[in-house]
Amino acid sequence: MAPRWPHTISTWRPKKPKTQFRDVTLVGIDIDELKEQHGLPVQFHIGISILHTKDLHSLCHTSLPWTESQAKVIRSYHWVTQDPTYFCTKDNRFCFGKHKCIPLASLKENLEKLLKPHHPVILIAHGISTEKKLLQDLNINLKPIFIIDTTKAAHYPLQDSRNYSLKLLLQVFGIPVTSGMLHVAGNDAHFVLRILLMIAVSDVRRESKDTPTWVPVFEAIARAPLPQMPLTLHEKAVIGNRKAKGLERLAEDRAQDQAR
């Protein structure tokens, strides 16, 4: 017997203006590769993604196709704490921006500096418990005005009380993803914001006969083409060897020309 659908209040209010949003910043967060000592985090990867409602409002009044900068409206970051040599021996699978390694002691300062221009913020995560505990353990308060867990937020629009995995929600909402992208903190933090946009789209499609003008904008952002995955260490080595061999041949050819 299928579980009964729990009583949940709809998040859509059709009387609100269709293309005006509250001035807030949506901040996706994800923690991965977590290592603890004595119950406290000592090493981990943290992903942060930022989407401002002002940018959404602007795109709602911009004709398609968008410029490259407009299409990259979600800004994403991947930080590795307490492991400065991580990317010397491990492949970089973060594909939505640049990664960096930072000391654990500077994490709070880096987060506050990154988010200071963007308050007030709404914090978004897919399963928020790990992220909340880690921030509390490190005495970091991002001061969100609201927290959204996409595992729960998807219940009503999908009319399903099960907690879907991140991968399954991406598939259900038609959001592109390729093998190797998931379980990378920066990528996952990016994808939770795409999922949130599609949750809003699915919600309004259930509740309203008229399609608000922001719906195709949200869909375009959520389903935007993916950037190329970074080269693996092996691929870089192969390219390096090819370049080295090419330079050797060029040097040999020049030497032969000079000898003639």
UniProtKB/TrEMBL annotation:
InterPro entries named in the record: Gfd2/YDR514C-like, Gfd2/YDR514C-like_C, RNaseH-like_sf, RNaseH_sf
Domain Gfd2/YDR514C-like C-terminal, residue spans: 26-198
Origin superkingdom: Eukaryota
One Gene Ontology term, aspect cellular component: nucleus
Gene Ontology MF, one: nucleic acid binding
Gene3D superfamilies registered for this protein in UniProt: Ribonuclease H-like superfamily/Ribonuclease H
Name the UniProt record assigns to this protein: Gfd2/YDR514C-like C-terminal domain-containing protein
Organism encoding this protein: Trichoderma harzianum CBS 226.95
